[in-house]
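To whoever is on call:

I kicked off a structure prediction for a single chain this morning and the downstream step that reads the tokens threw a length-mismatch warning. I double-checked the sequence; it's 560 residues and nothing unusual in it as far as I can see. Pasting both halves so you can look.
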Amino acid sequence: MFLDFMSEVEGLLKGALDRCGFNVEEGINSLGLDLCPQADLASSVAFRLAPVLKKSPAAIAEEIYQAICSEYCNVEKVEIAGPYLNFFMNQKFLHTVLEQALADDAWTGRMRERVIVEHTSANPNGPLHVGHIRNSVIGDTLVRILRRAGCTVDAQYYINDMGRQEAMVVVGCDHFQLDDSKADHATARVYIAANKEMETNPAIREEADRVIQLYEAGDPKITAKIQSAVRYAISGIEETLERMNIRHDNYHWESEFVRDGSVAEILKRLEKTGLVAWEEGSLQLDLSEYGFKKKLVLKRGDGTSLYITRDLAYHRWKSDHSDRVVNILGADHKLISGQLKAALRLLGIREPEVVIFEFVSLPTGSMSTRKGKFISADELLDEVEKQAFLEVKARRPDESEEFLKEVARQVSSGAVRYDVVRVSADKATTFDWKQALDFEKLSAPFIQYSHARACSILRKGDLKEELQIDLLTSEYEVALIKKIAQFDLVIDRAARELKPHQLATYARELAESFNLFYRYSPVLDAAPELRDARLALVRGARNALRATLETLGISPLESM
């Protein structure tokens, strides 16, 4: 779709630049091609050439414009606007876009990379909280975007089974009884109780230290206890993720990389750099040449490894099994993430691409698993689902309880996902369920309702095989076709730049464009030929809305 149009414009520009004798680096970015309000595509290449050619951008743009070949396939016209070159789609290309949308085969890209995306990876010592939700939603949305772009993606959860948190869970289970609540919540209660007990009973800490040592040594009794506790907590976490339509393909345990010797090998390689030394009772790596004043602790005095050491081994494995490695991490991991990348660079191992996200907050304040003061993701989802049920019931009072509950479940999950991902990861955000569930505003329910409206129209009209697509010439009809065309461009950019909020923005714009078309271009009441053409556009829009919602992990409801 749009990438084909962009490719043709790229060819036109390169040909013109060659005829002018202007040298520009290879690639679309070097041509300054981008969407703009005044045209379908614009080039700012003249600005890039101005310092080299010692001419004004407007004069350079004029030379390029005069050199552009007048014969092209999908471009209607080229205009010069000061220093910019503007390109417009022709009717033939718009027809192709709609035909592809109707065939429903235009939604997968051509990227062929193997990508590992690690996300969520919450410690198995309690339920997910709101901060984890942003990690999970960003990660899962990127998994879906990369798959839509054509990549083979492995969504991974890295389980911290060797840290103090899990040792405290095991100690807690030895001292306190697990209740019959949801697995991750029950785990949190014994973990919190053990930490509270430790405040007055130092022996608890000694027990936890002993558990860590025995587990790293491979003690079978402790191994069985820890792995049982981990699986139990993860089963509860998975239930929460499932409510948000999030699943992982594979789970990797930290202990894997200790047991198979990978951690020992990493330590050996780091020691050969001459930057590792025992200081203050621990083995530390000096990364000052990479700008880090604080040294990286690799091993405790008792010989046990740390999370970062095991993470280095895990990243070597990921690098060996993919073309691209993506990590989703909270802003509090910036330092350790930077140290990890520096250590990998030192070892000659490919570094991951890291998406750092700022935190999502609620008016209720801070969340701390250790102190037992947190708002779980389950509580948030329960509240949003309850409010969604009331909203759906007010709109559809005559529907069955079963219908209302199912729609509320799908609407609430979509509302949470969309509200979290619509904001750029590097910006903090506050979740407001009233805004997230507003059917009239630019929210997930608004986009879902647009899809449901398109489905409703199609149920009332029969689409003919012979269509006069050239009848679709009004402002809102053309605008909708052009917006549908942008899907592959948005997916491609979001996949390359790892910015899922770009797809959320596109989803809103697509729904807006469809609703404007619906408002100003009557479908079922139009004259027969025009009615058929508009029905075709409704189906193309429905297919695009469905593909967009599915890629965002939101259910494309057909009735709501």
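Update from on-call: the warning came from a stale cache, not from the record. Cleared it. Sanity check on the structure: The longest strand covers residues 152-159.
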